[in-house]
Hints:
single chain, alpha+beta, Beta-Lactamase, Alpha-Beta Plaits, 6-stranded antiparallel beta sheet, 5-stranded antiparallel beta sheet, 15 helices, 50% helix, extended, disordered N terminus
Amino acid sequence: MQADPCCLAVAGDLATGVTTKAQSQFHRYTLMPTPVVLPCFPGSLNSHNLCPGMPRTRTAPLKALRTQLTLWFGGLLLITLAGVALYVGQIASKEIMHTAGETLSVSTRASAELLATSLSEREREIELLRQTLEYEDDLSNLEARLMVERIQQLKSGYAWIGLTDKHGNIVQATDGMLIGENARERPWFKGAFDGLFIGDLHLAVMLAKLLPELQDNQPMRFIDIAVPIESDNGDVAGVLAAHLHWTWVTDVVKSIQQHDKLLQNAELMIVNAQGAVLYPEQHTGVTGIPQDLKPSITYENLLWPDGRHYLTSVAPVGTATSIDLGWQVVMRQPIESTTQAVAALQIRLLWLGALTFLVIILIAHRIAIRLTRPIEELVRVARIIEREPEHARFPSESGSPELTALTRALESMTSSLLSREQELANLNANLETQVESRTDELRQANQKLELLARTDPLTGLLNRRHFEEALHVHHRQFLQTREPYDILMLDADHFKSINDRFGHQIGDQVLQTLGKLMVQTIRGTDVCARYGGEEFIILVPRRSSSSEGRELAERIRQLVEQTEFMHAGHVTISVGVSQSHKSDASPEAVIARADAALYQAKAQGRNQVVQIPGDTAC
């Protein structure tokens, strides 16, 4: 029996398409393509390429018709939907960005005004309390203390309120904190002699030790307000001072963000007059501010130092207070967060286009089936192979012997390809799992090695090698900029006797506590390390006074002396201080002088800070 030439041609084209699809799935998991040799059928579209000696036969345009219907109807619909999505997206994006920018601007100004008003209220509260206290003859009496404690109880945000005499001695304070201390060197005490004083954000080490720790373990920061208390003859009789919790300020500005859904992705920052970020804490000292940032009545699209574009609004703080601190409220919102609604609309339009495109394909497919009834079942199987080859079920009878042979060949080829594909997929999955496991182990090992190379395992401070690297870098900067620095050499007194009396485990605990006390006392720019044994070393970059290093050493010595060490009791330290010279060619010279000063402190009786006479900074 001779097969119909038209059916044979369509079958040859179908076999080529199915083979190509199966090969494409198989080649995803193999490095080299595997050629498939098909039998040559007279009248096939591919018979001329596969068998050059066979004459090319003209075939019915069944597959071409199906392709044209799919391309025309589906392509036209996709182009229409894409155009609509782009047009709607542009209009919606502009409108959403404008609305978000206006909301951001209004919220920024509201936050700044609320913060300024709150500061002004605290200023008036302290002024009213001052006027009340001026009628008191004795600031140290019980009535004065009850007044300041009543203010703290009635008004939130006050961490500490105190009264000093004209010499700076604290005579009354809330909860009795710091009574008897002298505050004549505090900026708020000095500033109050000239009138109302409002200090910028700062740390208060002594007060922070007396107050309960914050829940998030953040450092306590305060704002000072101080006013003079005048006697009947107009002289300053004392100073009324208050420390405001920084958390009170942040709670004021966060209240606005919590009530506006459009600001959920926005960030609010408080920036001081020098451009440093005061709030939030995770951006302090890390996030940079654009150089062209300035207050405005609207919003701007600015490029920030992190390389991203933000809708940005700035409003000054301080117009409602007597003293302008130079603060600014900055709110920013990523540009991409304002276009999420537009992206969702475009995605819905794309899904609609995809579904419509599938409908058009099905219609074209039905037409092709009607035109190609002799190979209807084979076309159905080929479509199943294209989408879900593992669910393909070949018909037992396909009409002509040629189509039956083609069906059996396609069935065998599909089964073989699926089997090999599954084997390669399993091998790749196992290999990826092993690679991920080895990569994770290597990353953890590298992190541990890096930590061990940088830090001292007992105290967690920098080790000697890493400290010396940092010191050499700073010394090279010193030779270029002539900005001096100090070196502090610290040594635990009678540490050998602690080990002998209590054991090395208690000695290790003493060293760990000393490290923690030093970290609590030094500044953020200082570098502290364990130099060896019970010796520690601190690099102190100097900012203003030539006595900064010695003052820091004295604060550490006093803190250690006042600390009760578990099991070991009281421990003291000796400190040697040295300052960098113009003639120092290397930092080892500065360390040598600090070491000599340390031994002199030991020789003079320990528990003291010594700086060799004549060791002056450049």
